Every structure is written in structure tokens, then in C-alpha cells.
Amino acid sequence: MASAAAQRLIARTILSLPAPLLRLMAGGGVVYKGGRTLDPRLQFLAAQARKGPAMETLQPAEARRGETQALAAVSGDLEPGVRWEALSVPGADGNVPARLYRPEAQDPGAPLMVWAHMGGGVIGTLDTSHCFCALLARVTRAPVLSVDYRLAPEHRFPAGLDDVLAAYRWARGQAAAYGATGVAIGGDSMGGNFAAIVCQDLK
After folding, report:
1. Where are the alpha helices (DSSP H) in 16-119?
2. Adjacency order of strands within the sheet including 82-91
3. 70-119 pLDDT, tens per residue?
4. Do 22 and 87 have their domain in common?
5. Average per-residue pLDDT in the chain?
6. What is the distance between the alpha carbons of residues 143 and 104, in angstroms, rounded to a whole number?
7. Domain for residue 62, yes or no?
8. Could you tell me if 194 and 96 lie in one domain?
């Protein structure tokens, strides 16, 4: 199998092809969703994804490998002007890995954003949202703390949720040390679900 760098180069080359060719490679035709035209690059990627086995048919380890490989092929470059560091923060049952992203032009009035990645509570790692968290830090001018919460089935629900809640509580006491004012929480997909539950729980 090609290296991650080679896969990334191949993916970028293919996705830079003209729109008509990408649509042809995706099965032909223009795809409309909700009255809008689907980007031909997404149309191509969706067509490629349909060729593989359905996610729900895979064992967790297989799904995680597939997610890592797919992400490596299409991942963007890390945002300039954002530095990051690896941390270990208190989870619900011991420390969990995390990454802290800080923009050069940080706004001292911005909160420390605790971020939970996607993955249905079964897949996903700190790498899953690595580039996005750097982008989020640059755009919001706020520090972002990405949490590598525990995953099922090795750790049954709500273990991952409990880790995110514990990390948020820890962040409330650490925000000033990272030049932030207060704490916010967010996430995508399952991480967004976790963020909503944390807000409701703390309310």
C-alpha cells in the first residue's frame, strides 16, 4: 500500500481534475441535493466510498483503520500561525490524551474551546479533527482543546461522554493559564452530541 504522503498526492491530483471528468468517474451526471448541485469532488468521493463495505459491517478495528487511511488521503495542510502541543487531561477514569491548539493572534477575551471529535463513539482520534481544530483556533482566535475520549465497544457508553465532561470541568480551571476567558464546548457528529449533553448536564 502506498504511503500516506503518496495517497495524499494521488487524491489531490485526482480531485484537481476538471468537473466533467470527475462526474464521469463518479458514474456520470450532475447530482442535485435539496435544489443544489453537489460539488463534483464530493460526488467522486461518495462514489468511491460506495465501492467499499458498509461501515456497520466492519469490526471496530477495521473501521478505525479505514477511517485513518481515508483521512490521511484527503487531509489538508495544518493552518499557518497555529501551534499545538500534546497534553494529558483528567478523564472520568484516569487521564486521556488531548491536544491544545493556540493561534498566534489569540484574543484574550475568547474562551478555551473544548472539542470532541466525530466517529459514533466507536471510531475517531485526535488526528480526525487535527486540521479542523487548527482552523477553528485561527478563525476564532481562541485556544482549542481536542479530547481523545474513550471509545466503545472497549469502553461502554457513557465512558466517552464522561471523559468529555471531565475534560470540560478541568478546562474551566485552566482557561486563564492558556490566556482564555471562560470555557466553551463543541464537537462534530457524536462529538456534537456529547457537547449538547454536557451543556444540558451542567445546566
Report:
1. 19-25, 40-50, 60-74
2. 82-91, 94-103, 144-147, 112-116, 183-187
3. 877 777 778 899 999 999 999 999 999 999 999 999 999 999 999 999 99
4. no
5. 91
6. 10
7. no
8. yes
Name, of 9-13, 49-53, 168-172, the range with top average pLDDT. 168-172
Q: Are 19 and 43 in contact (CB under 8 A)?
A: no
Domain range spanning residue 180? 82-202
Helices 4-15 & 40-50 angle (0-180, nearest 10): 130
Q: Which three cell numbers stand for residue 202?
A: 451542567
Task: Please count the structural domains in the chain.
Answer: 2
The CA distance from 2 to 13, in Å, is 15
C-alpha dist (Å) from residue 137 to 28, 29, 64, 89, 118 = 38, 38, 26, 19, 18
With vertex at residue 187, the alpha carbon angle to CA 164 and CA 128, rounded to the nearest 5 degrees, is 95
Residue 197 domain flag = yes
In a domain, 86, yes or no: yes
Distance CA 144, CA 113 (A): 5
